[in-house]
Amino acid sequence: MEHLLEIKNLSKIFTLHNLGKKIHAVSGIDISLKQGEFIGITGKSGSGKSTILKSIYGTYKIQEGSIRYNSKKYGPINLTTATAREMIYLRKHEIGYVSQFLSVMPRTSARELVKQSLMEMGTPQEKADWETEKMLEHFELDKELWDSYPATFSGGEKLRLNIARAMVKRPRLLLLDEPTASLDLDSKMKVKVLIEQLIKEGTTMLGIFHDLEFMENLCDREYSMQNGMLSNSISY
């Protein structure tokens, strides 16, 4: 398998049973990523961008097509037919996902959340402690918040924590769903620095963005999405 990720003819339909209606979220999506590539997808809200990422991550089950991923552990694997155990392993060890929204256990501190991401990969405790503090410092999360529960955080603080959790793992494939949506300029630059670092380390990325300026000099290719379909890609 030449590519790290190959999406072919991906289609997803949502059925609204109470209205007897079907919505075609995405149709005929074809995307291929080589190791270390960063592809960006732009488009209006509701055009189907997030559906692609959630289908890759296994949050959505698709009706048609295939999503082939070249796993370090399993070799070439079709994520659309992977078992629950395989997907759990891949999420813990190989595929990261950054959402605009933070979903966590209610009584888990910010420090514990980031540390858990490392510990579940088998990182020794001392190194996990050091990496956790380094990441929290990078995103300038106030030290007084490190041992607080994220439920009390602002939207921007939650998003920075969410990004920290995903990036600290240095995944082979990183899915970015509007990672800078509610961040100020300084925080956006912090994200950009880490993305550039991960690119140098060989992480492959697929990201959704509204902020076109942020994407400059980051993406290898860009797709525009409209009504569930992709336009031809633009290479940089």
UniProtKB/TrEMBL annotation:
Keyword Mitochondrion: no
ABC transporter domain: residues covered: 5-236
Keywords noted in UniProt: ATP-binding, Nucleotide-binding
Pfam families: ABC_tran
Gene3D superfamilies: P-loop containing nucleotide triphosphate hydrolases
Source species, domain of life: Bacteria
Listed GO MF terms: ATP binding
Sequence similarity: Belongs to the ABC transporter superfamily.
Protein name, as recorded: ATP-binding cassette domain-containing protein
Organism: Cytobacillus citreus
